[in-house]
Amino acid sequence: MKKDFTPQQELLFLALGGSGEIGMNVNLYGCEGKWLMVDLGMTFSGDQYPGVDLVFADLAFIEERAKDLVGIVLTHAHEDHIGAVPYFAGELGVPLYATPFTADLVMRKLEEAELADAVELFIIEEDHGRLDLGPFSITYIPLAHSIAEGNALVIDTPYGRVFHTGDWKLDEEPIVGVPTSEEELTAIGDEGILALVCDSTNVFNHQASGSEGAVHRGLMEEVARHTGRRVVVTTFASNVARLQTLGDVARETGRRVCVAGRSLDRIIEVAQDNGYLGDFPETVDFDTAMALPRGEVLILATGGQGEPRAALARIADGGHPIELVSGDVVLFSSRQIPGNELAIGFVQNQLAARGIVMVTDRQSEIHVSGHPGRPELEALYGWLRPEILVPVHGEMRHMQEQARLGRSSGIPKAVVQKNGDIVRLAPGEPGKLAEIGAGRLLLDGDIIAPAGGDAITMRRRIARDGAMIVVLDTKGAVTVESWGLPLEEDMAGFVAEAAADVTKAVASLKGRTGQDREAVREAARMAARRAAQRWSGKRPQVKVILLGEER
User: Fold this and answer.
1) Sign of dihedral through CA atoms 295, 300, 306, 307?
2) Which of 367, 376, 428, 431 has the lowest CB atom count within 10 Å?
3) What's the whole-number mean pLDDT along residues 83-95?
4) Which backbone phi and psi does 496 adopt, to 5 degrees?
5) How many CB atoms lie within 10 A of CB 508?
6) Contact yes or no for 422/12 (Cβ under 8 A)
7) Which backbone phi and psi does 338 adopt, to 5 degrees?
8) Which of 248, 239, 240 is nearest to 219 (CA)?
């Protein structure tokens, strides 16, 4: 293997994101000098990156090899698979490929970023569309998921065929779309599958994920049960099948539909532009909804993950035109994404304090996952019969468990990799060749910056310990100000003592050291920090400013 990692007469796999985590999916396949990218997603920031909303995979590896990248193929339109497109597609300079619904959402992102004319976007036929890119021949395979037009990819290469699942599940009543049948998947397996690159999200679930048709029945029962009450349903905006279900439930229970949330408005518009939700009920505005008898409106709202600016959070704190009172109902037709527990709990506690009834998927069958449980994984293994299993789309515990499940189900070999591992799938024994390192980038304000940069490190420190500024003027006077120290009424005493300590520390410097501005600055910084630790137990970040050219 050359040090530049140019793929030779072989088939390579490299995840830059989505392996060792759930979200931020970016996968590369290498063959005969060329690379193919599958998905270009992002994830949302947690507390580890204060002040940051979006996190991206570091694409430096493929940016350095952009001349060898033949294209970016998108499996479906969830943000963890397309969210980074407007930030990086222009720099990569290669075409994008997607089915119509996904392409529509991607194009809107490109238009918002003023990149619509700078990035080529090709629409692939919705049902089993095909394309050839360098040594790769790609066929879209429709599979059920919690969004319209979820697809797996069959990737044919001179060194074997890969079945890349994307996000998927099995669903006998999918409501929207027609997934590929068991018979067709078995026929694909009969032709031979070298590697199955497979979603690991729900590998610990011992039951199948469930059917959207069952959710229809569950929602019907719940909405019908709350006669005379306003009912709000919160769900993932991208789940077009769920929106179709909710439109049908509203019609069947004699309720008008009101939509609260811009992302829901956008998805409904895109879905209808692409032939979905054709019989979705005409919606009413907030004023009309509030004027209707309480039992004659069904409100669809964003915010089921506790997002503070979303519609449900504003309804919960009384800051939205949609008003609920004690006895009204909120149905959480969504799963709780790990990491959002506190935010969801905060919104639910606000609702509970007002006497509003809440129903989640733990109490009633009003949600099913879009990812496969163990029975579905085992079924796919049996149909495709791959030689190699490569778990992706999961934390390490998910991927290791799927590898164990695959081996126990008869798959001869499993390769557990993580972001940055270059894996050779063929020829020869499959396994890890090298590790390139896979970093993260952050959208910090308007700037994309490394996750390990000084700004984030300093922000974490300030969040933990606070900050101080010490100013020394030309006459030796000292001014101290601080932020974030838990001193309250003791602040005046602390500031006076810190200033005195700084004065004493600077005065103790003798000879040339006393004239060295950096020595003065460091002595002042340490004296102020020691005073803060003595008074508060905190070790704040201290900035020292020396006024004038000379002391």
Assistant:
1) negative
2) 428
3) 96
4) -65, -45
5) 11
6) yes
7) -55, 135
8) 248
- Number of C-beta neighbours around residue 244 at 10 A: 21
Largest CA distance in the chain: 89
Least confident of 292-296, 473-477, 523-527: 473-477
* b/e map 387-401, b = 16+ CB within 10 Å: bbbbbbbbbeebbbb
How far apart, in whole angstroms, are the C-alpha atoms of residue 478 and residue 209?
66
In sequence order, the β-bridge partners of residue 480 are 470
Asked if omega into 372 is within 30° of 0 (cis), the reply is no
The residue among 412, 419, 414 whose CA lies nearest residue 431 is: 414
Cβ neighbors of 427 (< 8 A, separation 6 or more) are: 9, 10, 159
CB atoms inside a 10 Å sphere around CB 276: 21
Query: Tokens 């065929």 identify what position?
Result: 161
pTM of the model: 0.91
Given a contact cutoff of 8 angstroms between Cβ atoms, the answer to whether 191 and 154 are in contact is: no
Which tokens in the block code for residue 521? 């600055």
- pLDDT tens sequence across 153-185: 999 999 999 999 999 999 999 999 999 999 999
Inter-helix orientation angle 85-92/100-112, to 10°: 90
Q: How far apart are CA 267 and CA 273, in angstroms?
A: 10
Residue 412 half-sphere exposure toward CB, CA atoms < 13 A: 9
Q: Going by C-beta distance under 8 Å and a sequence separation of 6 or more, which residues neighbour residue 469?
A: 480, 481, 482, 542, 543, 544, 545
For residue 506, what are its two tokens?
Answer: 């600077």
Which amino acid, 476? G
Q: Helix axis angle, 517-536 relative to 491-507, nearest 10°?
A: 150
How far is the C-alpha of 163 from the C-alpha of 189, rounded, in Å? 9
User: What are the residues whose beta carbons fall under 8 Å from the beta carbon of 256, sequence distance 6 or more?
Assistant: 250, 281, 283, 284, 288, 289, 292, 296, 297, 298
d(CA 26, CA 19): 9
- Segment 526-535 mean pLDDT: 95
8 Å CB contact between 145 and 370:
yes
* Mean pLDDT (whole number) for 440-446: 91
Q: Are 247 and 280 in contact (CB under 8 A)?
A: yes
Amino acid at 385: R
Backbone angles phi and psi of 52, in degrees to 5: -115, 140
